[in-house]
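Propose amino acids for all 121 sites.
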């Protein structure tokens, strides 16, 4: 009776739980890397103390404008790198999850297969 209950759980609720955990892990990775937020703020200045308008001579204003553009460029590069690694980690987690979901039904019969192979040697 215990074996029947195990197989019943394995091929129904266990498989569904594995799928739900996979979706949760992928969502957690996207949240951890904040891909959505990073895309929204891709060209925002990077850790700049003051972003407001600068009063002064044309030279001072051009220097402030150039500083803001450099800050935006650095911010975009850093954010793109984090987005890339976040999407890469999500892709790897997705592939691992699909492999686990495909192998899940085979796992309970592996001991029988190994036993038959070992006894046939």
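Proposal:
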């Amino acid at each position: 009776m215990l074996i029947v209950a195990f197989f019943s759980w394995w091929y129904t609720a266990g498989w569904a739980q594995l799928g739900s955990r996979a979706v949760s892990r992928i969502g957690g990775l996207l949240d951890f890397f904040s891909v959505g937020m990073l895309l929204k703020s891709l060209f925002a200045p990077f850790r700049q103390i003051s972003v407001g308008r600068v009063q002064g001579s044309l030279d001072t204003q051009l220097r402030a404008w150039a500083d803001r553009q450099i800050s935006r460029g650095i911010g975009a590069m850093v954010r793109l790198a984090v987005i890339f690694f976040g999407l890469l980690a999500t892709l790897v987690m997705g592939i691992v999850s699909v492999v686990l979901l495909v192998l899940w039904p085979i796992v309970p019969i592996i001991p029988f297969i190994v036993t038959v192979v070992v006894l046939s040697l």
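The mean pLDDT is 89. The two ends are 32 Å apart (CA to CA).
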